[in-house]
Design brief:
Shape: globular
Number of strands: 7
Radius of gyration: 16 Å
Strand order of the largest sheet: 5-6-7
Strand content: 15-25%
Structural class: alpha/beta
Distance between the termini: 24 Å
Helix content: 25-40%
Largest sheet: 3 strands, parallel
Amino acid sequence: MQVDFCAPGGWVDQLGESIANTRRPIGVIAGLLAAARRAGWTVIHTREGHRRDLSDLNPNKRWRTRGHGLGIGDLGRCGRVLTRGEPGHAIVPELAPHPGEIVVDKPGKGSFHATDLDRILRTRGIRNLVISGVTSDCCVQATMRDAADLGYECLLVSDATAAVETGNHDGSLAILSAHGGRWGAVAAADAVVAAIDPLA
């Protein structure tokens, strides 16, 4: 989960939007991480960000992000927006990776786009994914859809994800859980942790 934790004057992201909603699931995600670690599961963190020279950023994406006022690579309160190595690109301290955990930097919304995530999972024999993080209407949804197309069985933890706008979050959950789950299952964290803990 990547949010801007160095901005002064409250929880506002690099683009000037409130991240109150997207901070809300941090405690729930921390509980999921603890359960996964107790069970010895592979934990993989992903974060959207581009190379420092922006050679992996297409002009269309940069132009569209400037609709917020700042575009990818522009200088904001926490360094250059969505640029690897900048303070605003760091994972929030509450969810920081443990030593040995994998971090996948992705230049797109979905975690499989232009990354080696699929290779990492297949090399480890992983076919089932428990997905959490932000935002539900963007990176989370894109990752779940791509994973399903690649043949992975997905479980989205409904209260371990969020969007900036509550309506977008609710709509995303409705889409992903419709018709028994087009791209996988959706369940609350308590049920997921209860299923994981006996495996520890």
